[in-house]
Amino acid sequence: MNVKYVIAIIRPDALPALETKLGKLHVQGMTVTKVKGFGEYTDFYSKNHLTEHLKVEIFVEESKVEVLTNAIFDVAHSDIPGAGILAVLPVDVLFHIRTRSES
Amino acid sequence: MNVKYVIAIIRPDALPALETKLGKLHVQGMTVTKVKGFGEYTDFYSKNHLTEHLKVEIFVEESKVEVLTNAIFDVAHSDIPGAGILAVLPVDVLFHIRTRSES
Amino acid sequence: MNVKYVIAIIRPDALPALETKLGKLHVQGMTVTKVKGFGEYTDFYSKNHLTEHLKVEIFVEESKVEVLTNAIFDVAHSDIPGAGILAVLPVDVLFHIRTRSES
Questions:
Q1: What's the whole-number average pLDDT of chain C?
Q2: In A, which residues are within 8 Å of B53 by CB distance?
Q3: Residues β-bridged to residue B95
Q4: Does residue C69 contact residue C41 with C-beta atoms inside 8 Å?
Q5: What's the CA dihedral at B35, B59, C1, C19 to 10 degrees?
Q6: In CA terms, which of A15, A88, B5, C91 is 20 to 30 Å from C48?
Q7: Which of A92-101, B47-56, B58-67 is the least confident region?
Q8: Per-residue b/e over A44-57, b at no fewer than 16 CB within 10 Å?
Q9: What percent of chain A has pLDDT above 70?
Q10: How far apart are CA C75 and CA B68, in angstroms?
Q11: What residues have CB less than 8 Å from B14, skipping those under 6 apart?
């Protein structure tokens, strides 16, 4: 099965809605990390220009990437700069450690 | 030298054994991040369905990927869901910042 | 536009200079995570062999990778082991969530 690695940097308040969406899409796993960063339109002269965001990482089969991407857009979208980014990266192979089997 | 990027999401208690293994395999670096997440068989109705795991990242030469993968399986394996996942991703190039040289 | 994913593991004290550099290079975003890890020449017998580093992640157009890489070398370089690593990974696609558009 061909797998992709989806990375999304989102605002923290978008997480609960994303989790609900992922449950409905039967996405079988997600990793969340607290990160700091800056994006477009950053005021580097501001003392706290590094804002808090969440980094969400999901390994997902290729056939589900578009549905997942749209789900993330739906919950994380905002007209304010700082809504974040979403990237899709190639994966050679993904294993489940419990079964030592490829997903 | 062709390099791969290995990402493993493991239970925190598997870290000490993994470090010992990596030392024996002469793996020359590892990055550890505290993450939260969910995996298979998650009960989304549970209040604390996001469990604590560690994300381990290792850049390793391609010839060592299989040995490293098996080492991670050995130390992180468990019959309980939540043992985690392991992914291998392609890398264009890896540099050591100290020497500015490719690894 | 072809995008690359740059991961750098650097010493925490190199961050302010890196931010200044990125602003000058018009790099439009950066994510920073506190990580622990070990690199070359680690003394595994030391109690605190896992040192604190920062993981910096930047999605950047391919044409800027070399300039960015050299900027990171300039600010994070050190003759002491522990200066860190820098990797460039392929990306299938990068979206801005605000506009749902590819970068």
A1: 88
A2: 31
A3: B102, C86
A4: no
A5: 70
A6: B5
A7: B47-56
A8: eeeeeebeebbbbb
A9: 90
A10: 32
A11: B54, B75, B76
Residue A2 Cα distances to A26, A60, A65, B38, angstroms: 17, 9, 11, 21
Measured at the CA of A43, the angle between CA A41 and CA A45, to 5 degrees, comes to: 165
For residue B103, the model assigns a pLDDT of 75
Q: What structural domains and CATH numbers belong to chain C?
A: 3-102 (3.30.70.120)
CA separation for the pair C92, C103 (Å, rounded): 12
What DSSP designation does B78 have? -
Structure tokens at B98: 């100290």
The ipTM, to two decimals, is 0.89
Per the CB < 8 A criterion, the answer to whether C68 and C27 are in contact is yes
- Is there a contact between C72 and B97 if contact means CB atoms under 8 Å apart? yes
**Which pLDDT belongs to residue A3?**
96
> Residues of A with CB below 8 A from C92's CB?
4, 87-90
- Residue A101 is predicted with a pLDDT of 87
Q: Report the pLDDT averaged over residues B58-64.
A: 95
Q: How confident is the model at residue C91 (pLDDT cuts 50, 70, 90)?
A: very high
Name beta bridge partners: C85.
B96, C9
List, in order, residues 6 or more apart from B80 with CB less than 8 Å away.
A98
Q: Which of C6, C21, C28, C31 to mutate to test the interface with A (most CBs of A within 10 A)?
A: C31
Task: Give, for B69, the enclosing helix (H) or strand (E).
Answer: helix B65-76
